Amino acid sequence: GGGHGMLQEVYANKGFKVHGELCGIIGPETAGWYKKPLESLKDYEGLKIRFAGLGGKVIQKLGASVTMMPGGELFQALEKGTIDATEFSLPVIDQTLGFDKVVKFNLFPGWHQPFTAQYMLINQGIWDGLGEDSKALVRNVCMAAVVKGLAESEYQQGAVIAGFAEKGVSAQKLPREILAKLKGITEEVLAEESANDADFKRVYESQQAFQSQYRLWEDLGYLPSDM
Predict the structure, then answer these.
(1) Does 212 map to a domain?
(2) 118 pLDDT band (50/70/90 cuts)?
(3) Do residues 106 and 169 make contact, with C-beta atoms less than 8 angstroms apart?
(4) pTM for the complete prediction?
(5) Where are the beta strands (DSSP E) in 79-215?
(6) Which of 42, 49, 52, 207 is deepest in the core (most CB within 10 A)?
Protein backbone atom coordinates (compact mmCIF):
# COMPACT_ATOMS: atom_id res chain seq x y z
CA GLY A 1 0.00 0.00 0.00
CA GLY A 2 2.99 2.36 -0.24
CA GLY A 3 3.72 2.40 3.47
CA HIS A 4 7.34 1.32 3.22
CA GLY A 5 8.26 4.17 0.90
CA MET A 6 6.44 6.69 3.08
CA LEU A 7 8.27 5.41 6.15
CA GLN A 8 11.63 6.08 4.49
CA GLU A 9 10.49 9.58 3.54
CA VAL A 10 9.31 10.35 7.07
CA TYR A 11 12.62 9.22 8.59
CA ALA A 12 14.49 11.39 6.10
CA ASN A 13 12.23 14.39 6.76
CA LYS A 14 12.89 14.04 10.51
CA GLY A 15 16.65 13.95 9.95
CA PHE A 16 17.22 10.24 10.61
CA LYS A 17 19.69 8.57 8.24
CA VAL A 18 18.33 5.06 8.61
CA HIS A 19 16.75 2.35 6.50
CA GLY A 20 13.67 0.84 8.15
CA GLU A 21 12.69 -2.75 7.41
CA LEU A 22 9.45 -4.23 8.75
CA CYS A 23 10.72 -7.20 10.74
CA GLY A 24 7.86 -8.35 12.97
CA ILE A 25 4.13 -8.07 13.58
CA ILE A 26 2.16 -9.32 16.56
CA GLY A 27 -1.60 -9.27 17.06
CA PRO A 28 -3.83 -6.87 18.99
CA GLU A 29 -3.13 -5.74 22.51
CA THR A 30 -5.78 -5.83 25.21
CA ALA A 31 -7.55 -2.65 26.33
CA GLY A 32 -5.67 -2.97 29.61
CA TRP A 33 -5.71 -4.33 33.15
CA TYR A 34 -8.02 -2.62 35.63
CA LYS A 35 -9.03 -2.92 39.26
CA LYS A 36 -12.67 -2.79 38.20
CA PRO A 37 -14.52 -2.96 34.86
CA LEU A 38 -15.31 0.13 32.82
CA GLU A 39 -19.06 0.63 32.70
CA SER A 40 -18.96 4.04 31.03
CA LEU A 41 -16.41 6.56 29.82
CA LYS A 42 -16.94 8.50 33.06
CA ASP A 43 -14.94 5.74 34.75
CA TYR A 44 -11.82 7.17 33.09
CA GLU A 45 -12.18 10.43 35.05
CA GLY A 46 -9.35 10.63 37.55
CA LEU A 47 -8.08 7.14 36.66
CA LYS A 48 -4.32 6.83 37.08
CA ILE A 49 -3.23 4.73 34.14
CA ARG A 50 -0.15 3.85 32.16
CA PHE A 51 -1.16 4.23 28.52
CA ALA A 52 1.21 4.73 25.61
CA GLY A 53 1.01 6.71 22.40
CA LEU A 54 -2.05 8.18 20.73
CA GLY A 55 -4.35 6.01 22.85
CA GLY A 56 -3.05 7.84 25.90
CA LYS A 57 -4.01 11.17 24.33
CA VAL A 58 -7.51 9.81 23.71
CA ILE A 59 -8.17 8.85 27.31
CA GLN A 60 -6.55 12.04 28.58
CA LYS A 61 -9.44 13.81 26.88
CA LEU A 62 -11.73 11.70 29.08
CA GLY A 63 -10.08 12.96 32.26
CA ALA A 64 -7.64 10.13 32.90
CA SER A 65 -4.28 10.86 34.51
CA VAL A 66 -1.98 9.24 31.97
CA THR A 67 1.60 8.31 32.70
CA MET A 68 4.34 6.42 30.90
CA MET A 69 6.67 3.97 32.57
CA PRO A 70 8.69 0.95 31.39
CA GLY A 71 7.20 -2.52 31.56
CA GLY A 72 9.53 -3.64 34.33
CA GLU A 73 8.03 -1.07 36.73
CA LEU A 74 4.36 -1.77 36.10
CA PHE A 75 3.79 -4.67 38.50
CA GLN A 76 5.16 -2.69 41.44
CA ALA A 77 3.23 0.43 40.42
CA LEU A 78 -0.03 -1.55 40.32
CA GLU A 79 0.75 -3.32 43.59
CA LYS A 80 1.53 -0.08 45.43
CA GLY A 81 -1.38 1.83 43.91
CA THR A 82 0.85 4.29 42.06
CA ILE A 83 -1.37 3.55 39.09
CA ASP A 84 -4.89 2.10 38.97
CA ALA A 85 -4.58 0.43 35.59
CA THR A 86 -2.25 -0.24 32.69
CA GLU A 87 -2.22 -1.32 29.09
CA PHE A 88 0.86 -3.09 27.85
CA SER A 89 0.67 -5.92 25.33
CA LEU A 90 -0.94 -9.25 24.46
CA PRO A 91 -2.13 -11.63 27.20
CA VAL A 92 0.81 -14.01 26.68
CA ILE A 93 3.25 -11.14 27.26
CA ASP A 94 1.25 -9.50 30.05
CA GLN A 95 1.22 -12.73 32.05
CA THR A 96 5.02 -12.77 32.21
CA LEU A 97 4.83 -9.44 34.07
CA GLY A 98 2.33 -10.81 36.59
CA PHE A 99 -0.45 -8.26 36.15
CA ASP A 100 -3.04 -10.94 36.96
CA LYS A 101 -1.64 -11.20 40.49
CA VAL A 102 -2.59 -7.63 41.43
CA VAL A 103 -5.52 -6.61 39.20
CA LYS A 104 -8.29 -8.91 38.06
CA PHE A 105 -10.08 -7.24 35.15
CA ASN A 106 -8.52 -7.59 31.70
CA LEU A 107 -10.54 -5.60 29.18
CA PHE A 108 -10.82 -6.19 25.44
CA PRO A 109 -10.45 -5.38 22.58
CA GLY A 110 -7.27 -3.34 22.23
CA TRP A 111 -9.00 -0.50 20.36
CA HIS A 112 -5.86 1.64 20.48
CA GLN A 113 -3.44 -0.91 18.99
CA PRO A 114 -4.89 -3.64 16.75
CA PHE A 115 -1.37 -4.81 15.94
CA THR A 116 2.23 -3.99 16.77
CA ALA A 117 4.74 -3.46 13.97
CA GLN A 118 8.41 -3.95 14.74
CA TYR A 119 11.14 -2.49 12.57
CA MET A 120 14.81 -3.18 12.09
CA LEU A 121 16.63 0.13 11.71
CA ILE A 122 19.89 0.05 9.76
CA ASN A 123 22.30 2.94 9.31
CA GLN A 124 21.58 4.30 5.84
CA GLY A 125 25.25 4.33 4.89
CA ILE A 126 25.66 0.69 5.89
CA TRP A 127 22.49 -0.27 4.02
CA ASP A 128 23.57 1.57 0.88
CA GLY A 129 26.90 -0.27 0.99
CA LEU A 130 25.33 -3.73 1.03
CA GLY A 131 25.10 -5.82 -2.11
CA GLU A 132 21.71 -6.75 -3.50
CA ASP A 133 22.13 -10.33 -2.27
CA SER A 134 22.68 -9.12 1.31
CA LYS A 135 19.72 -6.75 1.10
CA ALA A 136 17.54 -9.59 -0.19
CA LEU A 137 18.68 -11.77 2.72
CA VAL A 138 17.67 -9.10 5.26
CA ARG A 139 14.31 -8.60 3.56
CA ASN A 140 13.54 -12.33 3.40
CA VAL A 141 14.54 -12.95 7.03
CA CYS A 142 12.33 -10.06 8.12
CA MET A 143 9.46 -11.30 5.98
CA ALA A 144 9.72 -14.71 7.67
CA ALA A 145 9.81 -13.02 11.10
CA VAL A 146 6.62 -11.10 10.25
CA VAL A 147 4.76 -14.28 9.27
CA LYS A 148 6.03 -16.28 12.26
CA GLY A 149 5.39 -13.50 14.77
CA LEU A 150 1.82 -12.94 13.64
CA ALA A 151 1.05 -16.68 13.53
CA GLU A 152 2.51 -17.31 17.00
CA SER A 153 0.82 -14.30 18.57
CA GLU A 154 -2.57 -15.43 17.28
CA TYR A 155 -2.02 -19.02 18.37
CA GLN A 156 -0.85 -18.33 21.93
CA GLN A 157 -3.56 -16.04 23.33
CA GLY A 158 -6.43 -18.52 23.64
CA ALA A 159 -4.58 -20.77 26.07
CA VAL A 160 -3.68 -17.82 28.30
CA ILE A 161 -7.27 -16.55 28.40
CA ALA A 162 -8.54 -20.08 29.09
CA GLY A 163 -6.45 -20.03 32.27
CA PHE A 164 -7.91 -16.76 33.56
CA ALA A 165 -10.73 -18.38 35.55
CA GLU A 166 -8.45 -20.32 37.87
CA LYS A 167 -6.50 -17.11 38.54
CA GLY A 168 -9.66 -15.17 39.35
CA VAL A 169 -9.24 -12.95 36.31
CA SER A 170 -12.29 -11.66 34.46
CA ALA A 171 -11.89 -11.08 30.70
CA GLN A 172 -14.50 -8.57 29.61
CA LYS A 173 -15.35 -6.88 26.32
CA LEU A 174 -15.90 -3.15 26.31
CA PRO A 175 -19.52 -2.35 25.40
CA ARG A 176 -20.05 -1.32 21.79
CA GLU A 177 -21.28 2.13 22.83
CA ILE A 178 -18.01 2.78 24.66
CA LEU A 179 -16.01 1.63 21.63
CA ALA A 180 -18.05 3.94 19.38
CA LYS A 181 -17.31 6.93 21.62
CA LEU A 182 -13.62 6.03 21.81
CA LYS A 183 -13.59 5.89 18.00
CA GLY A 184 -15.02 9.39 17.82
CA ILE A 185 -12.44 10.81 20.23
CA THR A 186 -9.66 8.94 18.42
CA GLU A 187 -10.68 10.66 15.20
CA GLU A 188 -10.42 14.02 17.00
CA VAL A 189 -6.89 13.19 18.18
CA LEU A 190 -5.83 12.04 14.72
CA ALA A 191 -7.19 15.26 13.21
CA GLU A 192 -5.23 17.32 15.76
CA GLU A 193 -2.03 15.40 15.07
CA SER A 194 -2.57 15.83 11.33
CA ALA A 195 -2.96 19.59 11.76
CA ASN A 196 0.38 19.78 13.59
CA ASP A 197 2.50 17.42 11.48
CA ALA A 198 2.49 17.32 7.68
CA ASP A 199 4.07 13.86 7.58
CA PHE A 200 1.47 12.51 10.00
CA LYS A 201 -1.31 13.99 7.86
CA ARG A 202 0.07 12.48 4.67
CA VAL A 203 0.46 9.01 6.21
CA TYR A 204 -2.96 9.12 7.88
CA GLU A 205 -4.69 10.12 4.65
CA SER A 206 -2.89 7.32 2.80
CA GLN A 207 -4.02 4.82 5.44
CA GLN A 208 -7.61 6.05 5.17
CA ALA A 209 -7.55 5.63 1.39
CA PHE A 210 -6.16 2.11 1.69
CA GLN A 211 -8.70 1.22 4.37
CA SER A 212 -11.57 2.43 2.20
CA GLN A 213 -10.39 0.35 -0.74
CA TYR A 214 -9.61 -2.74 1.33
CA ARG A 215 -13.05 -2.65 2.95
CA LEU A 216 -14.57 -3.50 -0.46
CA TRP A 217 -12.79 -6.85 -0.26
CA GLU A 218 -13.27 -7.35 3.46
CA ASP A 219 -17.04 -6.91 3.22
CA LEU A 220 -17.35 -9.36 0.34
CA GLY A 221 -14.64 -11.90 1.03
CA TYR A 222 -15.12 -12.85 4.69
CA LEU A 223 -17.89 -14.41 6.73
CA PRO A 224 -19.55 -12.13 9.32
CA SER A 225 -17.67 -12.30 12.63
CA ASP A 226 -20.69 -13.80 14.41
CA MET A 227 -20.91 -16.84 12.10
Answers:
(1) no
(2) very high
(3) yes
(4) 0.89
(5) 85-86, 105-108, 116-123, 170-173
(6) 49
